[in-house]
Description:
By secondary structure, the chain is α/β, with parallel strands linked by helices. It has two domains: 5-103 and 258-279, no CATH class; 105-256, 3-Layer(aba) Sandwich (Rossmann fold), CATH 3.40.50. The chain is built from nine helices and eleven strands. The strands form two sheets. Strands 8-7-6-9-10-11 form a six-stranded parallel beta sheet, sandwiched between helices. Strand 6, helix 3 and strand 7 (128-134) form a beta-alpha-beta unit. The longest helix is centred in the C-terminal third of the chain and has 19 residues, at 238-256. The two termini are 39 Å apart. Residues 259-266 have low confidence and may be disordered. This is XdhC and CoxI family protein. Residues 13-72 form the XdhC- CoxI domain.
Amino acid sequence: MMKSWTDVVATLQRTGEAYVLVTVIGTRGSSPRETGSKMVVTAEHSDDTIGGGHLEYKSIAKARELLLTQQDCQHIEEYPLGAALGQCCGGKVTVLFEHFAERGKDVWVFGAGHVSKAMVPLLAELPLRVHWVDSREEQFPEYIPSNVERCLTDDPVGELKRATAGSYMLVLTHNHQLDYELTEAALRRGDLGFLGVIGSNTKALRFRQRLSHRQFDESAIDKMTCPVGLEQVPGKRPMEVAVSITGQLIALYQAEQPASLVQKAIDWQQLKRSLETEEV
Length: 280
């Protein structure tokens, strides 16, 4: 069943995956679809249609080319139908390509305890790519959001090697020693965007002492945030802690976000009016 481009865009904006919105913004003569027809292209899929045939094939190819770039951009192509594209319509179609670069951060959640169970569904509703790691299969809930990767492993510390530079990492396991090993491994990497460790001020002090004995300097140790979460959101219930940590991550990624989609919508409307004026 074909998905509507509006539904697909809503999902992609929530998950932060890169995509290209392809829109027919002008037609002359006979064409397979009317002005305003849209489709969405990602690295692996295309949804909805601008008319099929070679026009759509060429448009998907151009969209995939734009997906290789790392920044938002807009591009216009004019396709003469007929001999050039092997379509019998014989008209001409102008297509706008709007590339929305990848939005989400990778978030690695280590531990599937009560706080993580409350927090992961919240993170799944945000433009984040969540990787949920634990060695205990029975701790994972039956339902896990589709945009959350469940990582069942006997070696959580080894799993950290998969994290890309700049990823956020949350350490919330059931074992203090494992928490420490994950923390030390993260700090040795030195390239993560955020390291949050659940615990008390006493736990934080003990970890700092152990790290100092392992020859970590103060600047490296200061990259560990323990206790993790917003001070303005107190409480010890799992949901309270989950909301506190989620709020902290929202503040982090909002501070790093590029130009908003709202501004892109304004730019598109201005471009559309300009094209309509030229046609007149």
